[in-house]
Amino acid sequence: MKIRGRFAPTPSGPLHLGNAWSALLAWLQVRQAGGEMLLRIEDIDGPRSRQAYIESIPEDLRWLGLDWDEGPDLGGPYSPYRQSERLARYEELLHVLKAKGLVYPCYCSRAELAAIASAPHGLAAEGPAYPGICRTLSEPERATRAERKTPSWRFVMPAEPVAFEDLAMGPQSFPAGYGGDFIVKRADGIYAYQLAVVADDADMAVTHVLRGSDLLDSTPRQLALFDALGLPAPRYAHVPLLYGPDGQRLAKRHGSASIGAMRQSGISPETIVGWLGYLAGCLPKPEPAKPRDLLPYFRLDAVPPGPIRLEPAMLDRLGIR
Ligand code: GLU
């Protein structure tokens, strides 16, 4: 059976060096195994997505020398490959979860949640875990609250610990209920990333997900959703994030770390890929390379395990300030 991987960019910003890093590694993992790659545009959050990035991200990926077999531009057996065109499928899965009693309406506002002190920690990106206030509301209480507020929908995190083998980071385990009950559909009607990504990876027969380690703590949620929906889960590999010499995450920098800006300033794709290949342990020196030149040398276990701090020489060479 062929392995299937994906690029899954969110078009809320340009492709930057950090995205290019995980895209290159995902491509190497799949192409080395003779597998199939797909491009999926994760524009589920309409207001944050921009048409300009929907166009420039695939262009930048191609410019770097990456390719894919299915995607919004190429079509494929699992079309459409844009989340904004798959809303009916997410609604259908939300119904399945409702029918199983695995989601509940939540009327808590952001301000109410912010006021709750001493809650256990949720995901790194989110702050405190949701303490389950609306999980146990009675039907009359729900009816009263529904008069004032449209609810979000929260998934009940199972009461068992989650363990899985990460292909890059090794054995992982998370305690029962890790991160708290999480939102699958927001009060403004937008389906949450967690639900959309699970639906898509299952429907598009993705077998291998390689992505940045900022999403490691989302994995227990996604595995719980696959399980609840009776859908097959992929294997995961989480790779370290790139940081500047100042310890700041590269993704947080502005324009100069974007692939588009490097391209405009005359840097070659081979220079970028060569540096990334060097960081991934494929090359002894950061010599110019095309993605396919790295194929014989790529090994997930040679990728450094921890956060990668870029040397000033690399930032200078790539014009990142
Ligand atoms: N769309 C997400 C991002 O750009 C990636 C989601 C995933 O790989 O699961 O950060």
UniProtKB/TrEMBL annotation:
Name of the featured protein: Glutamyl-Q tRNA(Asp) synthetase
Gene: gluQRS
Native organism taxonomy: Bacteria, Bacillati, Bacillota, Bacilli, Bacillales
Motif 'KMSKS' region location, chain numbering: 249-253
Family membership: Belongs to the class-I aminoacyl-tRNA synthetase family. GluQ subfamily.
Motif ('HIGH' region): 9-19
Residues reported in the UniProt entry to bind Zn(2+): 106, 108, 130, 134
EC number(s) stated in the UniProt entry for this protein: 6.1.1.-
Alphabetized GO MF terms: ligase activity
